[in-house]
Amino acid sequence: MSTTHLIYDAGLIAVPAGFGLKQIGPNLDIRKYAKIRVIAHEVPPVGPGGILLDLQVTEGAVSLPLALGIALPLGPVDTVFDVPGRELQIFVRRP
Predict the structure, then answer these.
(1) Dihedral of alpha carbons 12, 79, 88, 23, sign
(2) I need a surface site. Which of 25, 36, 39, 45 has the fewest CB within 10 A?
(3) pLDDT in tens, 23-79
(4) Which of 42, 53, 44, 40 is nearest to 7 (CA)?
(5) ∠13-84-5 over CA atoms, to 5°?
(6) How would you class 92 by CB atoms within 10 Å of its CB: exposed for 0-12, middle for 13-18, buried for 19 or more?
């Protein structure tokens, strides 16, 4: 595994009312990355409570939470994570 960084910009995140967990973007192959930088900066007004961003990594048949409940739109997210695993999924949900 190299020390290469993957930068993933979630862009505009639209969250319909009254739903559960929703994956945004594709499953990302992260095998060749030691770290990723996740940016989420464009969140339209979604009402009280905002939305939450969850990151999950998968290694084989095991899924592990990387970060849960990153609050949006309280401010832009620009965070670097160590990423063990083979795939990364990014989800949004309402609190």
Answers:
(1) negative
(2) 45
(3) 888 888 888 888 888 777 656 665 666 778 888 988 888 888 888 887 776 556 778
(4) 40
(5) 65
(6) buried
Residue with tokens 């939470």: 65
**Edge-to-edge, what's the strand order for the sheet holding 5-9?**
5-9, 35-40, 77-82
CA 31 vs CA 21, 49, 82, 86, 93: distances in Å = 25, 34, 12, 5, 26
Task: Please say whether the dihedral angle defined by the alpha carbons of residues 69, 71, 72 and 78, taken in this order, is positive or negative.
Answer: negative
Amino acid at 3: T
Query: What is the CB neighbour count within 10 angstroms for residue 45?
Result: 6
Spatial separation of the C-alpha atoms in residues 85 and 67, rounded to whole Å? 14
Per-residue tokens: 47: 């009402």
Residue 24, amino acid: I
